[in-house]
Amino acid sequence: MKALLQRTVFPENHHYVPEGAWTRSAFTVLRAGKAITAPDHCIRRDSYPGQDILFCAAGRGFVSSEGRTLSVKPKQLAWLANETTHAHWPDADDPWTVFFVRIDGPDCPVMRRKVFNGRATVATISTPAVLEAWFGRLFEVLRARDDGVDLTLNRLVAELMHLIAASLVNPAESRLPVQLRAVVSQMRQAPEQPWHARQLASVAGLSAAQTRRLFQKHLHISPRRWLIRERIMMAQKLLLESDAAVSAIAERCGFCDVYHLSREFKRSTGTSPRVWRKGEGR
Fold first, then answer.
1. How far apart are CA 77 and CA 98, in angstroms?
2. I need a surface site. Which of 21, 72, 149, 237 has the fewest CB within 10 A?
3. Residues 21, 23, 27, 30: is their CA dihedral positive or negative?
4. CA atoms within 13 A on the CB side of 225
């Protein structure tokens, strides 16, 4: 009886094998479940496909990843770097109950670094009930295996990334400085304008270098790339809402010519303005 009580119980445990080429182009889920762990339940690996993400619902546990050993408490999530040596195990005195999911897709480590922005890969989830509900929906999808399961799993992974990222945002840091708000507001009202560095600095009341540093610190992008992104969104709106020629839209949005628009549009969306207009219009 004592040995039975020490066994890890898996109330949910699902595996999925997508088509071979799928993970080169989109994210998916390889495994997911829920475990009520025994004190001696320890997993250690040199490396493993995909990325394991664990959410502690009760108890406590530990993860070792990227040379760090981190404690994980209830309402906390840990993301393991499976491409390196990693491990996870429960607290011997208070073994955790853990939800787990293994994702895979194009360059998972880049996604992990983007979400955590260089910080330790443990996050306190601000909406744990929402995350548990997300796992519930994931289990239903994996049980049903309906047509379109790959697209559904891809969407669920995207939702998970947003849930994690939202929990990492510091409200004090998320408010932009007043100088940057002024610049962004004016650029957004007229993205077709050239917005040279001197003009941006004048709006911000700072030097050009200080304005550029504000963009990098708070928006993680240069003023030029931010402006191009706004122009692309403006072009998308015009492509759908008007019959104007692409060359006219390029000029209206501040691009040098139609070739400049096409190059930046394809870089952002993966397709040309004409193809995008046809597909989105339909």
1. 9
2. 21
3. positive
4. 9
CA distance 195 to 200: 6
193 shares its domain with 274:
yes
For residues 30 and 100, the answer to whether their CB atoms sit within 8 Å is no
Which residue, among 98, 115, 110, 108, has the nearest Cα to 43 in the 3D structure? 98
What CATH number does the domain containing 254 carry? 1.10.10.60
- Count CA atoms within 13 Å of residue 216 on its CB side: 7
Which CATH number goes with the domain that contains 93? 2.60.120.280
For the residues 58-81, what does the mean pLDDT come to? 95
Q: Identify whether residues 190 and 272 lie together within a single domain.
A: yes
Are 234 and 146 contained in the same domain?
no
* pLDDT tens digits for range 104-161: 999 999 999 888 877 889 999 988 999 999 999 999 999 999 888 999 999 999 999 9
Q: Name the token pair of 39.
A: 């004190």
Domain extent at residue 95: 2-171
Spatial separation of the C-alpha atoms in residues 235 and 229, rounded to whole Å: 10
Q: What's the domain count of the chain?
A: 2
